[in-house]
Amino acid sequence: MIKCKNCEQPIQGNYCSNCAYPTTLKKIDGKFILNDIGDAFYVNSGFFYTIKRMLLKPGVSVKQFIYEDRSHYIGPVKFFVLISILFGITYFFFKNYVTAITVQPAIDLGLREDSAMAKMLAWSIQNTVYTDLFGGLFVTFGLKLFFRKYGYNIFEIFALVCYVYGLSTLLLVFITLITGLTKFNLLQYIPYITTAYFVWAIAQFFDWKKVGSYIKALFSFAVGSVIALGIVILIGFISDLIK
Fold it and tell me: What is the DSSP letter of 49?
C-alpha cells in the first residue's frame, strides 16, 4: 500500500481518504497552463477578486479572510509582492516622472543633491515598496498597541497591513500610469490619497463607527512611516559623517 504524498497516510484508489490529495498529479500541459492563466484573471476569486474587494470593502474583506473564507482571496504577502512587481514594471517605464518628485523633498530640507542623506531620501521614495514594507512593521506594532482590546494577534494585523499597503501601491501604479500617459502630474497627490485610503480601511476593519478608530489609524500610519523614513535618513546622515 502506498502512502499519500501530502499527509503520508495509507492510500487506496485515486485519492487519499484523509486529505483528498490525488495519488498521481496530472501532467502540466497546454490545458493546465490555459486554466492557470484563466484562474489568475477570474473575478470571483484570486488576485483580481482581492483587488475588487480591497477597493470596495477593505476592512470587511480582511475580516472575512481571517475568520470565514480564504479560498477566494489571494494571501496578504503574495498580494503585496505581486503588486510590488507591477510597481517595478511601471517604474521601469515611467521612472522619469517618479524620479522628478524625489528631488524636491531634499531641496525642501536644504540638503545637497549629492549628499548621502538626499540620495537615501530619494531612494526611499523611488523604492516606496521597500519603504512601505519596512514602515509597515512599525505600523503593525502601532495598530496592535492602539487596538489591543480587539484581540487580534500581531500576524493578523500584519496581514491587514499587507493588504492595505498592497492596494495603496496599486493606486500608486495607476496614478503613475496616468501621469506618464497624460503628462498631468497626479503623483504629488499620492501621499494624501494613500493616507486617506489607509485610515478608511483600518477604521473599517476595527470599528468604522468610532471616530477614535480613524484617529488611531492615522496616528499609527504617521508614526510608523516617520520612524521608517527617519531610519533611512539617519543611515544617510551617518554615511555623510563617515565621508
Answer: H
Query: Contact at 8 Å (CB) between 219 and 142?
Result: yes
User: How many residues in the chain?
Assistant: 243
Domain definitions of the chain by residue range: 1-40, 47-242
Reported pTM: 0.75
So what's the pLDDT on residue 43?
52
Q: Are 102 and 126 in contact (CB under 8 A)?
A: yes
Q: Dihedrals φ, ψ of 108, to 5°?
A: -60, -30
Task: Tell me how far apart the alpha carbons of residues 167 and 49 are, in angstroms, rounded to a whole number.
Answer: 12
Helix (H) or strand (E) holding 10, with range, is: strand 10-11
* Calculated CA dihedral for residues 214, 215, 218, 224, nearest 10 degrees: -130
C-alpha cell at 149: 482590546
Could you read off the pLDDT of 60-98 as tens digits, one per residue? 999 999 998 888 898 898 898 889 888 888 878 887 766
